[in-house]
Specification:
about 180 residues; Jelly Rolls; 2 domains; globular
């Protein structure tokens, strides 16, 4: 099952309503104004990954519940067979596959990211930022990674580790690409 951004924000809206948490309180937990929060909830603005972690904490649920609608069940280990990770569709051109969605209370978020090339090779990716640190390891193709205004082209076997609070983004160069990302929040 692929979890579309609209399904994720619908779960956020529903949980906030069920828990009777005012939008103003959710906005304060994210450090944004209420209008911005409501734009996240409506899907008018992309909900940043760090906001999902903060909302999961506010709602007292695992972030997997927001991403997939299911509760993680494993505490000691979890095995994910090839191609069987929880699929999350967050941004155009990015297909995320969570490799630990069934592990409770995880501190890291490992994901396989499949990038489709943009029709316009000069197109730069949308930049995001979130709390924590991030590691990207290229498995296939070439990935252009922008971090804090600097651009790096990484090929198979190359990696980058960076402060995720810096604006960053990735895009495929010259064809499809796949990279492993590990995010620590």
């Amino acid at each position: 099952m692929i979890n579309q951004p609209e399904q994720i924000v619908a779960r956020v809206r529903e949980l906030r309503a069920v828990l009777d948490i005012p939008a103003a309180d959710a906005a304060a937990a994210l450090g944004v104004d209420e209008r911005t929060y409501l734009d996240y909830e409506s899907g008018a603005l992309d909900l940043p990954i760090n906001a999902l972690y903060k909302l999961a904490e506010l709602f007292r649920v695992d972030v997997t519940e927001l991403l997939t609608g299911e509760s993680p069940r494993m505490a000691d280990y979890t095995v994910v067979r090839a191609g069987k990770g929880a699929k999350v569709d967050r941004y155009p051109g990015y297909d995320f596959e969570s490799l630990a969605a069934n592990f409770r209370h995880r501190k890291l978020e490992p994901m396989l990211v499949h990038l489709s090339p943009h029709a316009d090779e000069a197109h730069e990716p949308a930049l995001v930022q979130h709390a924590g640190e991030e590691f990207n390891y290229v498995l296939q193709g070439t990935v252009r990674v922008i971090v804090g205004g600097r651009a790096f082209e990484l090929g198979r076997g190359d990696s980058i580790y960076f402060n995720a609070s810096l604006k960053h983004g990735q895009r495929a160069v010259g064809g499809p690409a796949v990279f492993l990302t590990i995010i620590q929040n």
